[in-house]
Amino acid sequence: MTIFRTIRGLDPGKLLEFNLMRDHMDKFWNSLRGGYEHLRDNFSGVFPLINVGESDDHVIISAELPGVKAEDLSITVKNDTVTIKGEKKVGPHPPEANFYRRERHEGVFSRILTLPAKIEGENVEAVFKNGILTVTLPKAAEAKSRQIEIKTE
Fold it and tell me: What is residue 39's DSSP assignment?
């Protein structure tokens, strides 16, 4: 069972405002790095779209990467940070093509994520299937929750 952290007592409208602010900050920082400015999703402006969750023993990251090949992906883990880099290639276009609409973009992208818990970097697993990348990161022993015995007198 996956346990996701929630923000209690927060007005859902404020959460939406926070998400919009985060998306704008992502665009700003990535444009400075020259990352994936040209790879913009029409909804959130970030590529790839990512979910981060956790269970008692693992942090799980899933990323939507349609049209990306596994050999064009790179994942690095350092301390409490995971970096997913890659390149999306659309394919050759005839030189005489005049586009009326062009929504399929190509180029390099990078997402840097701060993890919610310390992890064991040696046992990270990544699986890429049907355009979905799933990265499973085992939590370090000190980050796992444990039951505390209560003694009575």
Answer: -
